[in-house]
Amino acid sequence: MAAEVTTAQLIEKHRPTLDQALETIRSRAYWSPHPEHPKAYGENAAADGLAAFEALRGKRFELDQPGTDDWAGEEVSPYGPELGISYPHPDVAVLLPAMRAALPVWRDAGPEARAAVCLEILARISARTHEFAQAVMHTSGQAFMMAFQAGGPHAQDRGLEAVAYAYAEQVRTPERAPWSKPQGKRDPLELTKTFTPVPRGVALLIGCNTFPTWNGYPGLFASLATGNPVLVKPHPRAVLPLALTVKVAREVLEEAGFPADLVCLAVDKPGEGLAKTLAVRPEVRVIDYTGSTAFGDWLETHARQAQVFTEKAGVNTVVIESTDNYKGMLSNLAFSLSLYSGQMCTTPQNLLIPRDGIATDAGPKAYDEVVSDLADAVSGLLGDDARANALLGALVNPQVKERIEAAPGLGEVALASREVVHPEFPGATVRTPVIVKMDGGKPDAEAAYLSECFGPVSFAVAVDSAADAVDLLRRTVREKGAMTVGAYTTSAEVEQLIEEACLEECAQLSLNLTGGVYVNQTAAFSDFHGSGGNPAANAALCDDAFVANRFRTVEVRREA
Amino acid sequence: MAAEVTTAQLIEKHRPTLDQALETIRSRAYWSPHPEHPKAYGENAAADGLAAFEALRGKRFELDQPGTDDWAGEEVSPYGPELGISYPHPDVAVLLPAMRAALPVWRDAGPEARAAVCLEILARISARTHEFAQAVMHTSGQAFMMAFQAGGPHAQDRGLEAVAYAYAEQVRTPERAPWSKPQGKRDPLELTKTFTPVPRGVALLIGCNTFPTWNGYPGLFASLATGNPVLVKPHPRAVLPLALTVKVAREVLEEAGFPADLVCLAVDKPGEGLAKTLAVRPEVRVIDYTGSTAFGDWLETHARQAQVFTEKAGVNTVVIESTDNYKGMLSNLAFSLSLYSGQMCTTPQNLLIPRDGIATDAGPKAYDEVVSDLADAVSGLLGDDARANALLGALVNPQVKERIEAAPGLGEVALASREVVHPEFPGATVRTPVIVKMDGGKPDAEAAYLSECFGPVSFAVAVDSAADAVDLLRRTVREKGAMTVGAYTTSAEVEQLIEEACLEECAQLSLNLTGGVYVNQTAAFSDFHGSGGNPAANAALCDDAFVANRFRTVEVRREA
């Protein structure tokens, strides 16, 4: 096929962005080439994005992939409307070999060309951020602004970060090296060596419902940038954002003269369990997965032919021991508990508070007082329905609602959840968080708060002391895993205990956040998402280990 | 404890060596700080080394480890003599927690101090290379010169290489970074972030019989340099080289003010299967293993709490299609087949030769002619008993001898194995290689040559054509794995086919070697040992992927 754009042109266009990303993953400074503000995308972008989204509804999503044997799709927006889009369903025995056949030319293109093509894909996605925002909103239930930012620029940042890591890792060994070993008086031994990064095979991305792009892009772009064709298997309730991604990737690949089949989509029929079939296929050598612990464990156990990267469930914990900014702490925590109805893998679940109370800049506060002040802070934050809708979004599935409704049975309710009406989408289920008091010493309470209760349910766990809180934190991370840990303390000693616990149990820690940074948000290029060292995830987004084993280096040596 | 040497002193002493190693793993040039020539170690070094070795025999090898509940050891030199050394046998329930308890101070020392301590350990080992050579010779059966070089400087090089990779990987993320995100007209969001590389836990090294130090040092030093305490479980027949290593490591650690228990030894009793017990202990989070495919697969399947790095069996292949240096090719191959009686994981097993013969600078050669010329080259190389003993060494275990004796039953013998008497050690079993002709088209032959036949047994497999050879090469690597692939061809087209097969199946390729570099030897800092991408091994020695997942990075962020 004739390329419409050469890889040299793409390299010239994107090299400065790649270089900046390479610099930033080492400095860990703030940077993003993807604007966060919706208005930055042009005057008509919002209307155009909405129109583009609406134009997709009720139709087939054509992709021109090999081996399409049927059409599947049953997405219903958490805001109410059915999307009515059907997607290609694959004959795996046709699609996977076709993808595998596309590998050599992509491998031979080399790391820089692959990075440039990936950056062009991200640039095209960025230009359509408003359309993606609608797609993310109406599959995840995120409120528009969050769907826009987390599903758009922040996801694109994480994709770019993965490309930078992948590129850096592949070029560390030179393409070619002379080698000359002295032999005393005899001639030296001389070899010429070439080193080629080779992909492992087809990579499978198994997407999640809540953050289809944000959690999907790191694996997708890490695999593609290291030369692996990528098959995208979205969550059945969140297909569209990844289907659009696949479509853009195929367009760019084809324009650049590469086989479009390097990126394909696989959508399953109801109850088919296509992910299980795909995960153990011999062609599939890399898998990225975000979702339940049960299926993550299944993948790690059964997909032995593949490198498996999983993000699973965890029990995120905040230790509240003391603070010099009580008001700031309460408002920071209230926001963290409310954002996207607590449906983030990073949302705090357990708030560990000494039963004798805490010291604050507003005087000592009893356990009950802290909990009720936090409940008030949440109520205040979400008192206005418009603001509540803008922060909470809709519940992603009926199980979250069931958990909210079951929460009062677990303990004394400190804050009851209320229903919020969405003015634009009356079909949406919007609920404010529930906070339940728990006695940390009671075994039946422990069974509840030591399980992940995904959604806007938090437990205010009364503990005996700071030391007791740290012990419980340790046990929680070790046994249940955690994507995030937060802590509030003015004591250097307690801070040190908490930090040591996080180093030992391998958890990412946010200390004394009282302003506009929240424990549940991480920034690409600077923050690691997860540690890869506790049961919540076996990898971090994004580090060298996330990319280094997606390819291998083949050496050919010849006498010089 | 009071340190006799500070880490600052060790850093000052070893930083130049570390820097040179860091530079060389990127340039892939020739370099080694460890002299290959026995005479470079001083006039009395050989005698002193031998005396030191002899002084160890017939005694307890004291290590002062916690939890020693018994003494074990039954090493018999492949050259005949019993070593008579007994080593500490661990009460695992005492030893592992003690090792885990030593972790925090080692983690807190940081990457540079850990690297410096590792380099001091290597320097002390290097100074005792003659003693190690005796220990390697009398456990592996390697001839002295090979035990000296491969067990000494080459193993030390691989250890140093692992330290360099580990250090580089840990310092890629800064210890500390400011982060400032603009907020339009409002104040920027400002955080201070710290990043700490944290080890995964206790690392287990399961040693092999043939190359206890060479195959053991990469994992041992990669784990130790990334902060993991290392428990060394040697092969029961090759304990001494690793016991000496543990002893040196403990001495250096203690002198530098660290707990000696960061490196411990675990020797099992006959039939105990201690490796299985250790491999699934919760404290053990990293495992390095070299040995049989069966146990490697067992580890990968069952030691799910650990990162598992395995080097297993493979079927190494050489394609012989044409050459412009027939004599050089024959002598190069003859050496490769003979060295250490073919008991290297890198020794070629299958020689694929077109049944219509090959083109050479000495005219066309029929299949039979090539095989008999190769047989003659091996016979010539090993005709002199002294030279044969110096190259072959002793058979490492009785199973190798059984395989030699079974080989004539597999096909027509082109070269029969002969017994060589060792003048110094009449108890040694020294055998020259056997070459068996095989018809590549026959299914019963295929069953034989597609299994690893470890030892000095090679198969000259007649194939239909160069294309047929490449097909068989592909299948062999894909299904059985290969540590090495060799090829001889003057055809650019055939070379391209072979190279493509190696890129696709992920195998390291040596092309047209006719001089003093052999397909079965790799040089640290420059050559990768294995690819980690075919069934012979899931990791390469040494690359970034070998070290990147031995630690995780914990981030702590605070408002600035």
From TrEMBL, chains A, B:
Membrane-spanning ranges: none
InterPro entries: Ald_DH/histidinol_DH, Ald_DH_C, Ald_DH_N, Aldehyde_DH_dom, PaaN_2, Proline_metab_enzyme
Alphabetical UniProt keywords: NAD, Oxidoreductase
Residue ranges constituting the Aldehyde dehydrogenase domain according to the UniProt record: 91-476
Name of the protein in question: Phenylacetic acid degradation protein PaaN
NCBIfam families recorded: PaaN_2
Source lineage: Bacteria, Bacillati, Actinomycetota, Actinomycetes, Kitasatosporales
